[in-house]
Specification:
single chain, about 120 residues, 3 helices, 5 strands, about 35% helix
């Protein structure tokens, strides 16, 4: 794989769901094109599930990029199911439709989703 172009933001995201506690967590790390650390943060909220946590991670990460003015980037996820929902033409469960629609809108920023 070729190295990212200069001024490209690399977004590493991950989501998880703790069923016992009924909450989801999100972790986001941003790096520049040389993979130097820029920022990192976490987020949690009540409710959800594993796939929702992964999708919220992308949404929160893309929202961060947008607010910071980044328009070119690579979003790296370890969840193949999540990536498939976003980049493939598949039927999306109604409960996730609004969230995936938001993510697809944000992808107009020229951010690529990778597994």
């Amino acid at each position: 794989m070729d190295p990212p172009l200069e001024c490209t933001l690399i977004l590493n995201i991950n989501g998880s769901f703790l069923e016992h506690f009924g909450c989801l967590g999100v972790g986001v790390v941003t790096r520049n094109h040389d993979r130097d650390w820029i920022a990192g943060f976490s987020h949690y909220e009540a409710g959800g599930g594993g796939l929702l946590a992964e999708l919220r991670a992308i949404q929160i990460g893309l929202d961060f990029c947008s607010k910071k003015g980044y328009v070119n980037g690579i979003c790296e996820s370890d969840c193949l199911e999540e990536v498939g929902l976003i980049i493939a033409d598949v039927i999306i469960p109604c409960t996730l439709m609004l969230l995936t629609s938001f993510i697809l809108e944000m992808l107009c920023m020229e951010i690529e989703i990778q597994h």
